Each structure stands twice: as structure tokens, then as C-alpha cells.
Amino acid sequence: MNKESVGIVETEYHDISNPIILDSGETLDEVTVAYETYGELNKEKSNAILICHALTGDAHAAGWHEGDKKPGWWEMVIGPGKALDSEKYFIICSNVLGGCKGTTGPSSISPKTGKEYGVDFPVITINDMVKVQKELIDSFGISQLAAVIGGSMGGMQVLEWMVSYPRMMKKAIAIATAGRSSPQQIAFNTVGRQAIFSDSKWNNGNYYDTCEIPSNGLSLARMIAHITYLSDESMDIKFGRGLQDKDEISYDFSVDFQVESYLKHQGETFVKRFDANSYLFITKAVDLFDLSANDSLIDGFKNVEAKIKIISVDTDWLYPTEQSMELVTALNANDVDVSFSEIKSNYGHDAFLLERGQLNYIFSNFLSENVVDDLMIEDIATIRENADIVEAAKLMLDKHLTHIPVVTDDCKLIGIVTSWDLSKSIATNSNHLKDIMTKKVKYCHANDSIEEIARKMRKFDISCLPVVDEEMKVLGLITTDQISNLLS
Ligand SMILES: CC(=O)SCCNC(=O)CCNC(=O)[C@H](O)C(C)(C)COP(=O)(O)OP(=O)(O)OC[C@H]1O[C@@H](n2cnc3c(N)ncnc32)[C@H](O)[C@@H]1OP(=O)(O)O
Ligand SMILES: N[C@@H](CCO)C(=O)O
């Protein structure tokens, strides 16, 4: 552990009080969500980032569980000073619905039968997983996430969030993923499921009260899947045609090659950490994933509002760059603010779990943005509503101003007066500020992004916005000149 880590963490549990109505039409009662958080939620509840995990991940994304030898699975990007900085953001990661790491899944006890669900667990979708995450986010009283981020199946959840809850996030990053599962992706998952079904110990999903689990089937499913997470190049670099613990080939069916031993190891370690029935339900959810509407991703993305980053990996043949480009094209067609980055890596699909430098760089560039607070002028003149026009004109001349916020005695914004309004007063022969000021004044908040308010100013053709707090008290002003200076 070092100072860049969030340190010792614990998984927490949230019980959802209402039933979850699933896409299949079935309902799930008494759903529990396992989650972890890193950092502090700020007063405005505006700094939360939701991390969505991939197929076999869990809520433990960062830090260390007491006694563990390895940190959480995305330790490389989460922690003090990293792109997902726990000193700046409140980071939440939860285990998905259907999982086996604390959130309700097939190995949980059904409240109806008092026994493990097994294959009586309802078929779930990525949308159902996101519904459960939304319940967790609501329980914190968070009305908008600063960002939702995830890779692979986590990226599918990100895309689902963008479509199902378009106003619930400011930004979204979807990595090594697709808007709909391709036939090849479905094919690999179905072979994995068949491997489990063909293990007699699977016993139609009823193995929880026996001491035998379908380890052969599950480990075979993982070995097949794991090949798709690597690239030919990375296998060649890691193993070549190297032999495992021998100098000569053995002319039998024992393990000869390092790659055989490696895959065996991946299969064996997987069965110690994952439930076979969860594997069935989660891979099925991935297969069913399809965000297109009328067979078109352009139609599917028509309501997206967040600012989006799509990331692919150049050697990922499971979720190839072309699928990411399909997302970018569909988002662009909807005028969504979307950008794209391709990670250069020989790791293949799993690069999103390994490429520390590139991920930190892309994330921090995308997440860091200037907010109004960084730029606004704080030392500003204000004027009371009952002031006369001469007083406003003198103030403008003395302080070289073109805009003065009009405020109540306790400094709450009620209007704005501009040099143009003063010229108007001569033409209309008005003496009182309240007759000429703009009463329906547009304003912004200190934590609004510069991009957002620049758009607002362009839309309403205004050159200056008062900045107010939650009680409408004036904190400062921001002008188009400042924004132009920043951009130049
Ligand atoms: C995304 C989420 O949400 S979390 C889920 C992600 N986690 C996983 O998928 C866990 C399993 N996957 C892996 O380990 C993945 O390969 C990664 C991406 C996480 C790690 O990749 P890398 O650091 O490149 O590790 P690599 O693929 O080389 O595997 C290392 C393991 O293989 C073992 N290994 C390496 N060579 C051999 C060999 N010739 N024979 C047997 N075992 C071998 C290592 O001892 C090590 O074992 P350990 O993990 O039990 O300590
Ligand atoms: N290897 C990762 C990524 C799969 O997409 C996992 O098992 O979750």
C-alpha cells in the first residue's frame, strides 16, 4: 500500500426497499447491492463518479481489503492524485445484479423459497443492472453524477445509463465496448454456457447444498473467454512456444506449452472466485444487450445529453475499434458532444485493466475542465433596486463596468442593468432602475462548467452572467471576454 492508494476499504451493503421490475416483466424483491466508496461526497453532491465493472468484476475497485495481497481491480486509476482522484471525487462502485460478490444473484437466498435461486433467478439485462445502480445512487441523494465510467460489460452499463437516465450524468466514458452484442460475442458466450451445462455437477443449477461445484465446466468457460481477452501478439510475447517446466515435448496429453499451463491456471483460479450460475445469467445479459431502436444506434442514442468519451484498444478483437466507431458515429449523428481515443497496447481487450499511463492520461484530460469558479470576477459592484439611474451610471463610469447585478438588501439577485439599459433610459425618459433593468436575468453557479455556460451565453446572445449561490446571493460575474481569453 502507498500514499497513492485509498488504503484499507470495506464493502458495504444497501437494501432496496421496493421490488425491482425487470425487463422480462418479472419482479425481484429484497434486492441487496454490495458497493464501495472512496473519497467524500461534497455538500452540493456534485462530485460523484460511478464505476461500472466488467463481466467478472466486483465492487472492490480500489484500496485494500484487510489482509489481502492484491488491491481492487482498478487501483491503477483510482486514488489520491490519480485520474479518478479520491481527494476530489466521491467514487462509487457496486457489484452488478446477478453477480456473486454481495449483490443479489442466483446464489442468493430467494425470499419466496428460503433457498438459493439457482436457475429460478430471472433472466436479467444490462438495463436491470443499471436500474439497481440507480437505486443505490438515489439512496445517496445524488441527482446528477459527475461521470459514469466502465469497460467491456461496464461500458455497456455506461451506455445504458446515457440512454435510460440522460440527465443523470455530466460525463460518461465507455471503454472497449459495443452498443449491441455482435454474433461473434454471443457465440463465445454461448460456448461458455454450454461448457457449464455439460458439466454433470452443474445439476441444472442445483449445486449449492452439495460439496461439488461445476468446476470443470466453469473453468473451461473461463479458459475460452480468457483467450478472447488477450491478443495473439501478447500471447506470443508472454509465452511464445515456450515449454512449461520441461525441456522437451512429452508426446502425450499432459501440459507441454506455457500457454496451456497459463490458461489452466486462469480456469482454476476463476472457479475459486466465481459462481457458475452467475456466469450464465451475466453472459446472457451481455448477449441480450442492444441499444439500437428501429435497428439503428442513431435512433437508440437520440436522447443522450452527457459529454461522452469512447475509448477502444487497437488490439482488441473481441470488442474491436470498429464497434467503438459505430458508437461515435451514432452519437455524432445526434449532435452529442463525443470524443474518441484509441489505446495502443499489445494486451488486447484486457488492456482496459492494464494500461495505467494511457488510461490515467485520457481520463484526467477528459474529466478536468474549467468551472466558473476558476474564472469568475469576485470583487464586483452591485446595486439596489431602489437606486436611481444616475447612481448606476456613475458606478459604471467610475468602475469601467458594462453590467451591474441588481440585488436585494441581503444581496440576492433580482435583475441586471447594462450600459445599453442606461442608454435606453434616456430614450424612454425613465429615472428608476427597476423600470429599465432586466428582471428575468440569466445566471449561473460557481461549479457550472465553462463549456456549459459558454453554450448558454451563445444561445441567449448575452455577454455577462452573474454567478449566484444556492440562495441566489451574488458571488461574482463571468463574461465572454474571460472565456475568449481562456480559450485563446
Ligand atoms: C474488470 C473487472 O471488473 S475485474 C475482473 C478482472 N480480473 C480478471 O479478469 C482476473 C483474471 N484476469 C487476469 O488476471 C487478467 O489477465 C488481468 C488483465 C487482470 C491481469 O493481466 P496480467 O497482469 O497481464 O496477468 P496475466 O494475464 O499474465 O496473469 C497472471 C497470472 O497468470 C499466472 N501465470 C503466468 N504464466 C503462467 C504459466 N506459464 N503457467 C501458469 N500460470 C501462469 C501468474 O502466476 C499469475 O497468476 P495469479 O493471477 O494467480 O497471481
Ligand atoms: N477480464 C475481464 C474483462 C472481461 O470483459 C473480466 O473478467 O471481467
Please tell me about this protein's structure.
Its EC number is 2.3.1.31. Pathway: Amino-acid biosynthesis; L-methionine biosynthesis via de novo pathway; O-acetyl-L-homoserine from L-homoserine: step 1/1. The chain has 488 residues and is an alpha/beta fold. It folds into 2 domains: 12-369, Alpha/Beta hydrolase fold, catalytic domain (Rossmann fold, 3-Layer(aba) Sandwich); 373-487, Roll (CBS-domain), CATH 3.10.580.10. It has helices spanning 126-139, 153-164, 183-197, 215-229, 232-238, 258-273, 276-288, 297-300, 321-333, 356-367, 372-375, 389-399, 419-428, 433-436, 450-460, 480-487; strands spanning 12-15, 20-21, 27-28, 32-38, 48-52, 90-94, 145-151, 169-175, 307-313, 338-343, 383-384, 403-407, 413-418, 444-445, 464-468, 474-479. The chain has an 8-stranded mixed sheet with strand order 1-4-6-5-7-8-9-10, with helices on both faces. Strands 11-12-13 form a 3-stranded mixed sheet. Strands 14-15-16 form a 3-stranded mixed sheet. A hairpin with a 5-residue loop joins β12 (403-407) and β13 (413-418). α3 runs antiparallel to α4 (215-229), α3 runs antiparallel to α7 and α4 (215-229) crosses α6 (258-273). The chain is elongated and about 100 Å long. The model has no long low-confidence stretch (mean pLDDT 95). L-homoserine is lined by residues 54-57, 152-153, 229, 350.
